[in-house]
Amino acid sequence: MTASWVMWDERYTAYDFGPGHPMHPSRLDLTHRLADALGLLDHDDVVVRPVEPATDEQLLTVHSPELLEAVKAASADPASATGRHGVGTEDTPAFAGMHEASALAVGGTLAAAEAVWSGEARHAVNIGGGLHHAMPTTASGFCVYNDAAVAITRLLDLGARRVVYLDLDVHHGDGVERVFWDDDRVMTVSLHETGRALFPGTGFPGDTGGPRAADTAVNIALPPGTGDEGWLRAYQAVVPTIVRTFGPDVLVSQHGCDCHYSDPLAHLSVSMEAMATAYSWVRDLADDVAGGRWVSLGGGGYELVDVVPRAWTHLIGVVTGRPVDPTTPVPQSWRSHVEHTYGREAPATMGDRGGRPIRYGAWEDGYHPEDPVDSAIMATRRAIFPGWGLDPYFD
User: Fold this and answer.
1) pLDDT of residue 1
2) Quick one: which of 115, 117, 122 has its CA closest to 2?
3) How does pLDDT run across 296-346, given as a tens digit for each residue?
4) Percentage of the chain modeled with pLDDT above 90
5) What digits encode the pLDDT tens for the residues 35-91?
6) What's the pTM value of the predicted model, to 2 decimals?
7) Is the dihedral of CA 156, 248, 107, 180 positive or negative?
8) Which residues, in sequence order, are bridge partners of residue 3?
9) Are 109 and 126 in contact (CB under 8 A)?
10) Which residues contact 7 (CB under 8 A, 6 or more apart)?
11) Other beta carbons within 10 Å of 98
């Protein structure tokens, strides 16, 4: 049986912007500990893979030499960073070892993509990846190098004819979209809070791709306050239809969990159960349209104890074929570690809803123009579906 790969390296925690920065590396360590405590990593068909940093040559397939030069200089002397190429800003401050830590995240995603493409891995997950805001020439939004874009470029070089990049982070996946804006081999699909209310201020339904790649950038921009029902409805109303129509050879997905209702940096209201449901839908979609070839990544998420570890442990469970019931108690060993290390109480179960179902409704049951979520969905369907021969109302 082909194993599922979980990319992990304790050096991931070196991706550290310093005290007080919302993207603290504890979230990665706590996720790995929780997945381990639940027994998800202790199976013959699960391989926890060590990671090697991406080489300069690999990084340069997406990023400019000037960006690498700026990151390396800041990495050696953080105090010298001036904000050039986005390095040393308030959002993305410089830190010692910045280049090495960032290259390691890219290396994990590259190895995952190569293994999935070759068939060595059935599915693969890299919670240290998903750094989707990094641009070809600039670091941005806590992201230094864009691991997803480098990995997708590699998949194309290996022979993939079409790749779908699906981004479920609360923020628009602008960096990946930018890299492939005019490349008709890659469809980028981003489900996010509207840029009118949230960084990076982009990702509107009318942003549909460059002149040589019409209708390959799909943006679903949701209103602030969207909860479980609206979020899942938006996914189902757009993603399966457009991805199946495009017909990818491989699916790369980003699972920032900052859409959760307790995330401090955004304004959606999504629960653990809804995110776990979406993870299973993405896996099923990859099985249906891409021969099971699925690379899944971490991303944003800034409630470091209650949200990120549980969300990405659910992701690891889905990737490895052992989804975790949200009513499952959180292991006492992990809760004790949280209390001892962080001085706070940890969540008691793996879910938020206490077993209550989510009733999101199906798009084919009716479009409600007075509903802000349905209006957002329809804006995307009208912008994208006709170019693929689809009816915005009925397909």
Assistant:
1) 61
2) 122
3) 999 999 999 999 999 999 999 999 999 999 999 999 999 999 999 999 999
4) 98
5) 999 999 999 999 999 999 999 999 999 999 999 999 999 999 999 999 999 999 999
6) 0.98
7) positive
8) 121
9) yes
10) 49, 51, 108, 109, 111, 112, 124, 125, 126, 127, 128, 129
11) 29
pLDDT band, very low/low/confident/very high, at 167 (cuts 50, 70, 90): very high
> Tokens standing for 210?
């460059």
Please identify every residue annotated as catalytic: 133
Q: What is the mean pLDDT of the chain?
A: 97
Instruction: Give the count of beta carbons closer than 10 Å to the beta carbon of residue 214.
Output: 14
CA angle 189, 195, 199 (to 5 degrees): 100
pLDDT (mean) for 171-183: 98
Please report, as a single letter, which amino acid is at residue 377: I
Confidence label for 2 from pLDDT (cuts 50, 70 and 90): confident
Q: Which of 134, 113, 185 is nearest to 299 (CA)?
A: 134
Q: Which three-class secondary structure string do you get for the chain? A: CCEEEEECCHHHHHCCCCCCCCCCCHHHHHHHHHHHHCCCCCCCCEEEECCCCCCHHHHCCCCCHHHHHHHHHHHHCHHHCCCHHHCCCCCCCCCCCHHHHHHHHHHHHHHHHHHHHHCCEEEEEECCCCCCCCCCCCCECCECCCHHHHHHHHHHHHCCCCEEEEECCCCCCHHHHHHCCCCCCEEEEEEEECCCCCCCCCCCCCCCCCCCCCCCEEEEEECCCCEHHHHHHHHHHHHHHHHHHHCCCEEEEECCCCCECCCCCCCCEECHHHHHHHHHHHHHHHHHHCCCCEEEECCCCCCCCCCHHHHHHHHHHHHCCCCCCCCCECCHHHHHHHHHHHCCCCCCECCCCCCCCCCCCCHHHCCCCCCHHHHHHHHHHHHHHHHHCCCCCCC
